[in-house]
Input
Amino acid sequence: MTMKIGTGQFKERVDQGINDSFMRGAVAGAQERIGTRRNDVISELNWEEWRSHGEEIRQHVLEHLDYYLEQLSENVAKRGGHVFFAQTGEEANEYIQQVVAKKDAKKVVKSKSMVTEEISLNTALEQAGCEVIETDLGEYILQVDDHDPPSHIVVPALHKNKEKIRDVFSEKLGYQLTSKPEELAGHARKKLREEFMAADIGITGCNFAVAETGSFSLVTNEGNADLVTSLPKTQITVMGMERLVPTFEEMEVLVSLLTRSAVGQKLTSYITVLTGPREELDVDGPEEFHLVIVDNGRSNILGGDFQSVLQCIRCAACVNACPVYRHVGGHSYGSIYSGPIGAVLSPLLGGYDEYKELPYASSLCAACTDACPVKIPLHELLLKHRQIIVEKEGKAPISEKLAMKAFGLGAASPLLYKMGSKIAPMAMNPFTDGDKISKGPGPLKAWTEIREFPAPNKERFRDWFKNREKGGKQ
Amino acid sequence: MKVTLFATCLVDMFQSDVGKATVELLERLGCEIDFPEAQVCCGQPAYNSGYVKESKEAMKRMIETFENAEYVVSPSGSCTAMFREYPHVFKGDSIWEPRALKLAEKTYELTQFIVDVLKIEDVGARFEGKVTYHTSCHMTRLLRVASAPMTLLKNVNGLEFTMLPGKEQCCGFGGTFSVKMGQISEQMVDEKVMHIEETGADYIIGADAGCMLNIGGRIQRTGKPIQVLHIAEVLNSR
Amino acid sequence: MMQGTIQNRDAFLNQIASRLGRERLSAPLPRPAWQYQPQDEVLKDATVNELVEVLKTHCLKIHTSFVMTDLQNLPETLEKTIADYGNESIVTWKDQRFSDWGLDPLLKDTLPRQNIDVYEWDYTRGAENIRQAEKANIGITISEITLAESGTVVLFSDKDRGRTVSFLPKTFICLIPKSTIVPRMTQAARIMREKHLQGNNISSCVNFITGPSNSADIELELVVGVHGPVKAAYILIDDL
Output
């Protein structure tokens, strides 16, 4: 599975994250800054209605996905674009390699795209003899730093500080200025401008395709997607198959939800709506346009309990609200999709063997569900994963299964429950120190490693209540 | 008004003082309290761990136990939210879904019941001290009860209130999350305790037994001079 | 326009239909009747002058200078704005409106006489246009639709209106006829859709531009001017 990042077991990755104090400071700061801006900018709107509209649009599209994809492909072809439907990542990569070969392309510039990360397109392009340059500043930094994986869907290099970026730039690019962000960005601008002017092919992702006109939109603040789609002679756009809307009217609503949720802006600096290759007498824009529509496991999610996850518009609002992500960072998830959306999506696209811990990496606090602009019930989907892991996959630990069996029996029988809770103080006696248990047995062990657990009351509440009833009140 | 108390297993076994305060408070506000002995656990620990089948057994017992009540009141936001979730759990079950729905509709968290049903905003309590309040996730996000506890606390005589920074952040309890993902839970509860300390409060008040167990356990382990109280205990003090 | 190709479609769409538990949809779908339409409520009853105020205020947030003028004073205002941004080379669209608004003397005479290059887009010169845009200090374009809420100008590309005029130069100057102001993106989307439904081809590139290029990718610190323009200026022309 190519969406996988890093090595090592989940717990080790989490330990690494927890011990990375720069990353944690950066993530906490980002959550607060983006969160505040988002809250400000959504408070101007009747946000709940906007969310409901976003949800109904996304649900409608998923229910009629084959129809809208057919319409989209017809309209792209009508405007002279070539459409390739790829059921797997490999098929998508092979097709793109063929285009590269036909164009004898040596240099590819890319704007940020999660789906191309998911299918490891860059590796495929390099195999085809191409130099690939990521042009989103964050992605560029990661690429220059020996392909460090992204740790956030919207701010991919969030885990790096400017000193580190300066060091990487000096080592790899001969950079000689300070660690000031504007100087670093200025250097990247200069370098990338040369790349843009020399590139043979531009590759983009797709925020929202528009079925009615065969258009698609790209949302950035940097304007890199505009240069990627203006300068090279050939353009390839890769989209996850669910990322489309019926018309411009719905596109507009989702773009508004996206920019507010992702970065707390009413609109980002550049929202570009492209339709087909350039027209006959146009000077800039691509002469040839290819749209690659990727399934890569998405269709298996349709029609099942997890369909709503395909409503996602990749804004990362859930990531920015997540207390678990806050402390462990993006790399802990072992997937390019991190945070709550990653914890739901990664097991679906990458399998439970690889990602069985992720559904448990949540306190079910539901901050993600509240933040989602298209109302994906993320915490409920995490629960659904847990249920499947327990009931269908049989991947739960035996001790837990036994405990839960006992729970089922005990909780279902008032008598057993009463007896159990009655003998608890006695059973716990050996571990009790005054009013607390500091070194608990069994499942309590993990609890008491970091906190005290109260000793069971000698007189349960129910006994107090009963005695009081008997004795007459006061 | 007849109130049937759903005490929750944590209160029954570990926090009987909270149960006592709840009973006394509601009686003072004119309610008649009933505690059905047959009550067990709401099923949440199993349900949230993915053991839906096992949890349904507990849920059925709870429905049978409480379905004839006039009002069901619980001193725990999370457990109340679980009751409200029952119809969703039994969705499509022709026998249990309607029964679950009937129960969900008359179940209230304690402060919600006082403010929304009894229509009381000042319970006539007196509590001297500097306090802050932990808004638990399930109570605010699932049950959508945010203002009731604030309203009631505001009207307690002598109480000095400071808002908790980062109040919307989870404390790291999350039921079995607290033991399954102990290393992450620890970071979360530490940040929570740090924010509580920032307020300079002597008391951290909550309305959810699980969160209080977590935050309280960590405060006790790290030896901070902060006391944990359930909101029922504060509202019941005079 | 040559028709493009479509590959591997049927198997792909059949799989989707089968997962959704039904046959492929073939009959045209009617427009969905949406239950919610909150976008119509934004700035619903605002007058044009109120929209101008909203636009002006929002420019402060998007690092964009904003100046209002009328047709009579436009040449002077533009000249001053160009001077503010360094009086260097300029690239403009080829657009009749520059002439109509009396800008010919400035663009074709006054500025060149001060040794300021003014290059007008000319599709017959092919790639030379891009070279000119790349070395120009200032690019001048005209907004077709202007979104008050977000401070956004909308540009439609064609053979005379190159895309790169708004991206490659260091400074982005956009002339905004007051008559183009609408509340928000909602109205722009409808105008575009209307145009399509009336049988017109939508431009191959429609740009919604909101201030200069920027990035917060390094420690979330805002850097203005990354790939595209470093500076942006709007000149609102009272044409009503």
Remarks:
- Chain A has 22 helices and 13 strands.
- The two ends of chain A are 68 Å apart (CA to CA).
- Chain A touches chain B through 65 residues (CB under 8 Å).
- The longest strand of chain A covers residues 234-240.
